[in-house]
Amino acid sequence: MKKTKKTKSTGVKNKPRNKSISKVKRTVSKPAHSALAQFKKSMLALVSETSTNLPPDVRRALKWAIERETPGSQAALALKAMAINTDMACDKEAPVCQDTGMPTFEIKTPAGTNQIFMQGEIKEAIREATKAGKLRPNAVDSLSGKNSGNNIGTGCPVMHFEQWEEKDIEVRLILKGGGCENKNIQYAVPCELPNLGRADRSLEGVRKCVLHAVWQAQGQGCSVGAIGVAIGGDRASGYQFAKQQLFRMLDDINPDPELAKLEDYILQNANKLGIGTMGFGGLSTLIGCKIGAYHRLPACFFVTVAYNCWAFRRLGVVLDSKTGAIKRWLYKEDTPVMRMAKEEKLPLTGREIPLTIPLSENQVRGLKVGDVLMLSGTMHMGRDVLHHHLISHESPVNLDGGVIYHCGPVALKKGETWFMNAAGPTTSIREEPYQGEVIRKFNVRAVIGKGGMGTKTLAAMKDIGAVYLSAIGGAAQYYAKCIEHVEGVDFLEFGVPEAMWHVRVKDFPVIVTMDAHGNSLHAEVEKSSAVELAKFAEPVVW
């Protein structure tokens, strides 16, 4: 891919609270009447635009991946869906992916800027963006399991402030979903790596760790992906610094020559592993690799990798420090938005198999890995909480012959009617502890998700006569368009992403990647890519 250059403890216990002082503190946290008056409006614009419009460098990288992929392959089909979805999200001003992630803000302010006020305004902007359907309500209390419903909670959203000597305010935002967040990984070297052997405390060891990080993600992080890598630091700073690397442009060049060479090496060779788009196999697995280095303790050498999906939602703004108004956008560049697709629908080959839900056992056993299906009828959305619930409770609807879609949508309500503002698949492997039991208990005939599932699910599918169907991760607008009607919802108390939604779909495109005969494309790709990974075990002469 072408690159372009360049509260302290006082020790006093049980001291009575001074209410008058507390009141003064609350008062001074408010700015003067006109100070930063437009800040919340600017933050709402930033959040909305980040969720719905991929930046030019990401579009260029995706175009590069599309152009080099084998025509007619499953990977090419997935990339076309991503391209169409990117255009749809921008045109509709709707989320590119239904998993709008954990909003993470990197904020630089001049000395004297009221950061407390800014925090409050950012939270208000997040609330409004969630209500408008630009963000999915993702903030869940870790103890109670209750969703706040507005993306606000302890530690949510994430805000990192830094003071600088510039006169303006700079705010950068990344929306990184849970599927790719789960594929982040940290290595303490020296260590032994499958297929690669020992990784030592050197750039050679870092090379092995990064290649292994890409391999272990497979398609579960919605490849094609980008990675941020931190060398050194401690465990906490390593993860933060790795994520900060994702704020770099995909086509920049690292100012450190050694790291620039390593970035280029990883990008070229990770794409030789054959993991491919969505883990279907193919020529493109990565669209970016960005590496930074921190000092470390003598006893510790950490290599931390932050994986980001193809729906690389990252933008920024420079603001007037007096009004909070946007002066200019970051990452957008002064070019028109690049259209990603010529089509509005996936081009059909005539080999697609139309099926109407509910499905029979005979229909399902007649399917094989690689078949492309067009589903119509009623399917049921359900993820982590629902699957855990179903293993010990009855279903509120009949699932015999049914299809379960691993999806946590962005669902909005107009009057008494629900509609889907975004509805792409979530990573299925999280349901592996429950899925086989749910299939057997309810005679479920098909499960839709992304990234594939494991041996327990595969065994249940073979016994019962069921299949796993891969949808294209991140293609939230494309799949939302296939939903004709929301027929109902159960367990809304679980939160919008975890509720059991019942939707009527038409011509919903999916690929059989695990069939009722014990075959799994995901297992095959993992095995074959391990063979390719092992070819990089020998040291590289830099």
Can I get a quick summary?
The chain has 542 residues and is α/β, with parallel strands linked by helices. Helix content is 31%, strand content 23%. It contains 15 helices and 20 strands.
Account of the protein in words:
With 542 residues, the chain is of the alpha/beta class. It has 3 domains: 34-175 and 314-345, no CATH class; 178-308, no CATH class; 353-523, Alpha-Beta Barrel (fumarase), CATH 3.20.130. Helices cover 31% and strands 23% of the residues. The protein is built from 15 helices and 20 strands. The protein has helices at residues 19-28, 39-52, 56-68, 74-92, 115-131, 178-181, 203-217, 235-245, 257-270, 361-365, 384-390, 432-442, 455-464, 476-481, 521-534, and strands at residues 102-109, 158-163, 169-176, 185-188, 191-193, 197-199, 225-231, 286-293, 302-308, 313-319, 326-330, 353-356, 372-381, 403-405, 410-414, 417-422, 446-449, 467-470, 483-490, 500-514. The strands form 5 sheets. A 5-stranded mixed β-sheet has the order 2-1-3-10-11. Strands 13-14-17-18-20 form a 5-stranded mixed barrel. It has a 4-stranded mixed β-sheet with strand order 4-9-7-8. α13 links the parallel β17 (446-449) and β18 (467-470). α3 (56-68) runs antiparallel to α4. The protein is globular, with a radius of gyration of 24 Å. Mean pLDDT is 93; it is low at 4-29.
